[in-house]
């Protein structure tokens, strides 16, 4: 059905947010990056468009909630292993992320996450199998 996903996120300070995600280990596609937006590569055909709030307002008349006090959703990314989950959270913490909760191990799934400088929640999970039935 769909071939790519682009998650659009408004950010207060594009340079700061870009530096944060570069410290975590993500790359930006220069073809989709300028002083108004940054096209962050999350994986094969997976992208986050980080949009300065002024630029993001050209796409919607709605107000942007403060991500530090309100949640309208969060981004969840799959990882190859529990170790990758922990490594990315550690990099995010070192780059200044807020870690809102402890890691959770549900047996079939391991997850942990962080909040970026704008308060957007990024959840990282490693699926080990299927959830128990019943």
TrEMBL record:
Listed InterPro entries: Glyas_Bleomycin-R_OHBP_Dase, Glyas_Fos-R_dOase_dom, VOC_core
VOC domain spans which residues? 3-127
Family annotation (Pfam families):
Glyoxalase
Q: What's the protein name?
A: VOC family protein
User: Origin organism of this chain?
Assistant: Pelomonas candidula
């Amino acid at each position: 059905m769909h071939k790519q996903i682009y998650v659009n996120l408004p950010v207060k300070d594009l340079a700061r947010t870009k530096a944060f995600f570069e410290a975590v280990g993500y790359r930006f596609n220069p073809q989709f990056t300028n002083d108004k937006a940054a096209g962050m590569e999350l994986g094969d055909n997976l992208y986050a468009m980080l949009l300065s709030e002024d630029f993001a307002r050209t796409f919607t008349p709605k107000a942007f909630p403060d991500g530090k006090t309100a949640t309208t959703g969060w981004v969840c990314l799959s990882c190859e292993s529990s170790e990758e989950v922990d490594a990315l959270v550690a990099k995010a913490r070192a780059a200044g992320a807020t870690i809102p909760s402890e890691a959770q191990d549900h047996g079939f799934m391991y997850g942990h996450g962080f909040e970026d400088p704008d308060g957007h929640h990024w959840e990282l999970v490693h699926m080990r199998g299927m959830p128990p039935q019943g």
